[in-house]
Amino acid sequence: MESIISMKNVSLIRENRVILKDINWEVKEKEQWVILGLNGSGKTSILNIVTAYEYPTKGEVSVLGHKFGQTNLPELRKQIGFVSSSLDRFSQTLKSETVEDIVISGKFAMIGLYENVTIEDREQAEQIMASFRINHLKGKTFDTLSEGEKRKVFIGRALMTKPKLLILDEPSVGLDILAREDILSLTKEIIENQQCHVLYVTHYIEEIVEELTHVLLLKEGQIVAAGQKEDILTDELLSETFQLTMKVHWENKRPWISIHKNIGWTKFAKVESNI
Fold this sequence. Notes:
Blueprint: E1 3-14, E2 17-28, E3 33-36, H1 43-50, E4 58-63, E5 66-67, H2 73-77, E6 80-84, H3 91-94, H4 99-105, H5 119-131, H6 147-158, E7 165-169, H7 177-193, E8 197-201, E9 214-219, E10 222-228, H8 229-232, H9 235-242, E11 246-251, E12 254-261, E13 264-267
Parallel strand pairs: 3-8, 3-9, 6-7, 7-8
Antiparallel strand pairs: 1-2, 1-4, 4-5, 9-10, 11-12, 12-13
Helix pairs in contact: 4-5, 4-6, 6-7
């Protein structure tokens, strides 16, 4: 089975501070992974290494068959789609851009569209918009969209290059319940139809839909556990990762959590549980 991501004995040290320590992790073909951990656990650093924007202090890294130190990293990045709520910082720049032009700009890895666009580019963008159920937004400018619509546009933009790996970094943060579920439904469709591997980063256990198969738990720059989600999403491992006493149950093939307090088990409303 082909290795999609491989990290062997990877450590990252910045200004004498250990960010990541002895990371050994492999994503294989047909596996769809979730990364969970508190802020500062190393999630962003893992993503920066996978996208080749940060180089480990030691260890071996291979992404999509490209071994770091022996490959053209800018070319590798073209095979990786990246979506993050941090892209919202470009809202002012994009406010007058049309939805279809923003989607097309993903082909050129630019914020804004400055390249010549072919008829085929526009047809591909329209196909993506139709599959994402946002074709009715054609011609609308970015500043008129809801937050959920903006996220869907960014995901469509990331798919313009037909990436082999799609990273969704907290794609639902700041969205209401309906918009969040729409993003999760879209994630399921991407896994089923786009033939790419998804790396999904979240703080919300209940966002781990059926199609996401594996989980990586991080704490203070080290791996707590990694493997199939049914084996990893246990009371003990989640409690260790998040430094709270937690209890997990499954409903509709999605995990949900309760958190133990001194007064007893307090079950969070499913739509509100936040770790």
